[in-house]
Each structure stands twice: as C-alpha cells, then as structure tokens.
Write a structure and sequence with these properties.
Elements lengths: L2 H22 L5 H20 L10 H25 L4 H18 L4 H18 L7 H25 L7 H24 L8 H24 L4 H7 L3 H13 L5 H16 L10
Helix pairs in contact: 1-8, 1-10, 2-3, 2-7, 2-8, 3-6, 3-7, 4-5, 4-6, 4-9, 4-10, 5-11, 6-8
Length: about 280
C-alpha cells in the first residue's frame, strides 16, 4: 500500500476511537477511559509482537527514546481525553495540529510547500474559533496535548526509521507497555468500575484498538515511507477528519467558518509537493 493510504487509515481511526470514547464518558470517568485505551492497546501489542524481545538489541540511546515515547503516549492520551470531555472533537483536532506546524516547517524547501503550509494553518485557524472564556481548562488540556503530539511525531518517526533490522511496530509496542505503567497511578482507580461492567470494559477495549492500535501501527508504516516534514504536513487533514466524525458520531454540526477551514486544509494538502530524491529525509 502507498504511504498516503496508511495515513488515511490512521486519520480515520485517530478520531473514530475518541468519538466512541466520548460516548463512554457517561458510564466511566474520563481518565478511566484513557487508561482502558492505553492498557488494552498494550495487551494487544504484548500478545501480537512480544516487544520485550527487543531489549537485548537496543542501544542505551534507543532505550531512552522508547522510554520517552512511552511517557509521551501516556501523557498525550490523558490530556487528549481531558480536552475532548470539555471541547468539540473538531476544535481539539485543530489545536492538536498546531504543534505539527513547527515540524512541517523544518523541511520546507520551496515556495509551493510554504503556500501549502500557509493554507493549512489558515484552515486550522478557521476551524479552531477559540473562545477561551468558555472552557479555559479544556483549552489548557488541548494545548498541552498539542505539544505532546508534536513530540509523538518526532519520536515516532525516529523509531520508524531506526534501521538495524529493528521493527518500528515492535518498538511502538514496547513504548505502549511503558505508557500503561506510567498512566496507571493516575488512571487505574478511575478505570476500576469498568472491570465489573459488561458494557464499559469491552467498549473500552474497542476504544483502545480503534484509537491506539490501528492508527499508531499505520502511523509507523507511513512514517517509514515519508519524510518527517511531509508526514507532519499531511497531519493537517486531521481537523477535517475530526469534524466529519464529530458530525456522524457525535452530531457536532460545524459552522460555516469551520467548513471554510476544512476546505483550506484540503487545498493545502493537495498542493504540497514531495521533495525530490536526494533531499534530506
């Protein structure tokens, strides 16, 4: 499959799982849902990839990267869920992209790509429509998630291209196990009621598979085939995907301004140009 196809799958599930999580918030605390997402994904990776087999092959630097990625995944998932519990999914998705602007800008090589980035930024601004007086803590969580998402892109791209026969998906699985341990002290108590619920527990596992297994695996497959700046710019389509899923799953109807933002983002992504062979990856 071409890299854009992997990215498309990731984009859909990146917000489809959280949309289902919002529906689960009525049955379980927000941080409880976040931990079920992380822990269920960790179990899937443990059974599927047995990532602990990597330990002997990793250098001290690679182990530090995995530890950092695990901490980032734990914090990012918690901040994201705390944000979507207070703000529309499309708004959080738009803010989430702001951090990737920095990553995308690092690799800009020509006027066409600068214009593409400017259009994408304009689209994000139109989608966000920030009103800090309405839900200040929601925006605090969303902007912290934004910074963490930028770190996820940087660290995720590093493990996807680590070479030496190391699988990025195996390293991702190891990082997810670390994330489950890191998040447990903050979230496990909130998740406890799910273990006696015939509805909440399987729903939480489904959220984990949709939110953390499918999109993160397809992210690795895309990152291994794309420059980091290209992947970061393609992420600008995420607010548009979040808006569509918000409409379909959560009946969060966008305004005219938000629709204009979606159009600008799609235009920016469509005119973005991949660098020619030989340019820095």
């Amino acid at each position: 499959m071409p890299a854009p196809a992997y990215f498309g799958i990731s984009a859909i599930f990146h917000y489809l799982g959280p949309a289902f999580a919002v529906l689960l918030f009525t049955h379980l605390d927000v941080l409880g849902v976040a931990w079920l997402r992380i822990a269920s994904a960790a179990v899937v990776f443990a059974v599927w990839r047995r990532p602990w087999r990597l330990l002997r092959r990793l250098t001290p630097e690679q182990r530090r990267v995995l530890l950092g990625l695990g901490v980032v995944l734990a914090a990012m998932n918690m901040m994201f869920y705390l944000a979507i519990a207070r703000l529309p999914l499309a708004t959080v998705g738009a803010i989430e992209f702001l951090g990737t602007i920095v990553v995308a800008a690092v690799g800009m090589r020509n006027v066409r790509n600068v214009i593409a980035l400017a259009l994408a930024v304009g689209g994000v601004v139109a989608l966000t429509d920030i009103r800090l007086a309405g839900e200040p803590f929601g925006f605090v969580f969303a902007f912290v998630n934004c910074a963490l998402f930028m770190l996820y892109v940087v660290l995720g791209h590093r493990i996807a291209n680590s070479g030496a026969g190391l699988s990025g998906i195996d390293q991702l699985g190891a990082a997810m196990l670390i994330a489950a341990v890191v998040a447990a002290p903050f979230c496990l108590t909130a998740a406890a009621p799910a273990f006696t619920s015939p509805v909440a527990l399987p729903a939480g596992v489904g959220v984990g598979i949709c939110s953390s297994v499918i999109p993160y695996v397809t992210d690795q497959l895309a990152m291994a085939r794309l420059r980091r700046s290209t992947f970061a710019l393609m992420l600008s389509i995420l607010p548009a995907v979040a808006t569509v899923i918000g409409i379909v799953v959560l009946t969060q109807i966008p305004t005219i301004g938000e629709l204009i933002g979606i159009a600008l983002i799609a235009w920016g992504v469509s005119i973005h140009q991949e660098p020619r062979e030989g340019q820095e990856k």
